[in-house]
Amino acid sequence: MEKKFWHDRWEDNQIGFHQEEINHYLQQYWSTLNQPIDTRIFVPLCGKSRDMLWLLEQGYQVLGIELSPIAVEAFFQENNLKADVIKHNGLELWSCDELVIICGDFFSLTPESVADCQSIYDRASLIAMPPAMRPAYADKMHQLFPVPRPTLLISMTYPQSEMKGPPFSVTDEEVKSFYSAHFEIHTLLNEDILEQNPRFIKRGLTQMSETVYLLQPKAQ
Ligand SMILES: C[S@@+](CC[C@H](N)C(=O)[O-])C[C@H]1O[C@@H](n2cnc3c(N)ncnc32)[C@H](O)[C@@H]1O
Q1: Pairing of strands 151-157, 99-103
Q2: pTM for this structure?
Q3: 62 touches 99 (CB < 8 A)
């Protein structure tokens, strides 16, 4: 989507994707990545996700990136965190203890900016993008992490003809096409989520499922 789309969404508080609760797939499956605490986790397109708090509570460091200043400011304010804000290489960095959120465009990141991240938590990034943008997103991830990092990826599928995205439907085949060159792809869970999401039933969906993937780097 155009950047304006997301700026408008945040401006108008149309953020149905935001979860007040910590994501239960994150809590259930993060341990499958076997990441030592004290390591840094990259959270692309982080919004104001409270999942970052959970990761911090487990003892990790977190680096998020989010386009919308409204989202970044809200994250710190709503969680009673005081941010130090600095400009670095044209990007705005909001930080507090072990957390840094870069306020800016994911596509403007450099490998140096994420070099100290050892793993990735990616919820709802691919489904935020129309089909034509997704290959560029996956390519950018490969460029940012020339040495691939273990990733917990949460995505969703539904009959695309029944609803205009976002959220978009992203198939297993697409995930494989983006990541199978560098990762072993393990499907940890595929869950029917339509009943829990009346807003999507109202929008005409007859089926909707969420998939949790573990992307395990292939031996180099
Ligand atoms: C579907 S939401 C997911 C947010 C978050 N991952 C969560 O679980 O709540 C997508 C988010 O990506 C942000 N976004 C979209 N395009 C972006 C870009 N190019 N760079 C950084 N953030 C972007 C949007 O502002 C929005 O907050």
Answers
A1: unpaired
A2: 0.97
A3: yes
Atom 3 of ligand 1, residue of closest alpha carbon: 124
49: CA distance to ligand 1 center in Å? Answer: 10
Q: How many residues does the chain have?
A: 220
pLDDT in tens, 162-180: 999 999 999 999 999 999 9
Q: 98-137 b/e with 16+ CB inside 10 Å = b?
A: ebbbbbbebeebeeebbeebbbbbbbbbbbbbeeeebeeb
In ligand 1, which atom is closest to the CA atom of 7? 25
Q: What is the pLDDT of residues 8-37, one digit of tens each?
A: 999 999 999 999 999 999 999 999 999 999
Ligand 1 mean position to 18 CA, how many Å? 10
Measured CA to CA, the distance from residue 195 to residue 200 in angstroms comes to 9
Residues with CB under 6 A from ligand 1: 6, 17-18, 45-47, 49, 65-68, 71, 105-107, 123-124, 128
Contact 170, 156 (CB under 8 A): yes
